[in-house]
Amino acid sequence: MRVLVAGGAGYIGSHTVKALLEAGFKVVVFDNFSSGFRELVPGGSVIEGDLCRLSDVRRAFRTYPCQAVLHFASLIQVGESFRDPQKYYQANLTSSLNLLNAVLDSGVKHMIFSSSAAVYGHPETIPISEEHPLKPSNPYGQTKLFIETMLQDYSRAYGLNFISLRYFNAAGADKGGKLGELHEPETHLIPNILLSLLEEGRELKIFGTDFPTPDGTAIRDYIHVSDLADAHVLALQRLLEEGGGGFVNLGSNRGYSVREVIRKAQDVTGKSVNFEEAPRRKGDVPILLASKDRAEAWLGWKLKFSDLDNIIRTAWDWHRRRRSRLCPP
Fold this sequence. Notes:
Rossmann fold; 41% helix
């Protein structure tokens, strides 16, 4: 079976491409490489194009007829979405609508969507289950919720089978060391900690030390990217077997504060992490933890790599190897 992976040159997309190939799927990566990287594509066919141009999307489906689509392509920076909501609504919604319409026109019946815990907004209960009210607190989260609504409407009207996977905090790197987290600019905590140790003059800031948490810093649920990739394969297999669909959290029901992550990074690397304290960012919430009950029960998903030590160790190995390739001694 051939599947098209939109955004397959990105962080989570590339790890999922690797997992799909290992599971025996034929994979076509569709990416405009604006934020994805060719070096992260682990195999399969590649077609360069922009989801915001419907002609590009239709060309991809004509060139590589497929039976399922995985949609990762998205702008993802919460802070930027506040500063420039037009950019986020234009990019995320236009691209998704074009992809959905191409799916419909091509007769494809199965789609996996890369969603986010941002659809929940400020949590009313912890851990967050899929039944939690959907109240996004930023434009980025709002775009994800709009796309989920489109998926529901297309499912009802046209018989599209879909699963929307709501990520919490993806982290870590492929244990083989060939894939890892690469964003420009980098906004995520763990890679920024590690890059501050590798790049002279790179500053590390922690945003918010007055949250109502034990040490005053925000608590997040970190999931190893390889566990996320496995969940996509399981979700696709479930759709192919049963049809239907729904919404699934991908988290661990375990959280770590920013200070705890920094301490673990120091343990793993053997280096002292220097940082500057900064005010909270707009839209940040004190605690985000996911219930993983539905993912375990419905998808048969089991965490294999998501202890914090392994997350940081694999990320550290990836960043050091990449740094040594770019800056050989």
